Amino acid sequence: EVYSKIFSLVHSKAARGDERLAGVAALDALISVPSSDEEKKAIRFGNNLSHGLKAPYADFEFLHAIAKALGKMSLRSANVDRVEFEIVRCLEWLRTDRSDRKLAAVLVLRELAKCAPTAFYSKTHNVNVQHHAATAAGSSGGGGGLATMAGLGGTNE
């Protein structure tokens, strides 16, 4: 099956990230293709993209591609539950000590804020997201930090 091959690319542990990026690009391209069972497709795609965020071999480019694909998925009505799940999980990840999880969280939150602003607001209106992002940036030890890298530097784009 085509999907199995694509999912295996996303989860590839190859030394080069090209295979993983190709898998994410394929999923991203297939998100808008109609399916006889949109809900099942949304669950499968969402689970595979979401699992990729937790990969120990994830780099910025890979995480950014996944975040973009999740943002694109959020535009479809079958994915409301996925969007809410990702927002809640990302807010939790901003409180962890793991910089890779914080980076993934900031990238995904940025995309979901752009692509699903209503769902984003409903889950974050009582949360200071910029404070969490600034905390993530401060604990990452880098100049500019995760928030700046992800485009949450305080200016509206």
Task: Characterize the structure shown.
This protein has 157 residues and is mainly alpha-helical. 69% of the residues lie in helices and 0% in strands. The chain contains nine helices and no strands. α1 crosses α2, α2 packs parallel to α4 and α3 packs antiparallel against α4. The longest helix has 17 residues. It is globular. About 3% of the residues have low confidence.
- Percent of residues in β-strands: under 5%
Shape designation:
globular
**What summary fits the major beta sheet?**
none
H-E string: HHHHHHHHH
**Quaternary class:** single chain
**Mean pLDDT over the residues:** 82
- Give the radius of gyration: 15 Å
The low-pLDDT segments are 140-144
Provide the helix percentage: 55-70%
Quick recap of the structure?
The chain is mostly helical and 157 residues long. The chain is built from nine helices and no strands.
Helix/strand layout:
Layout: H1 2-10, H2 18-30, H3 38-53, H4 60-73, H5 80-93, H6 99-115, H7 117-124, H8 129-140, H9 145-150
Helix pairs in contact: 1-2, 2-4, 3-4, 4-6, 5-6, 5-7, 6-7, 6-8
Brief descriptors of the model:
157 residues, mainly alpha
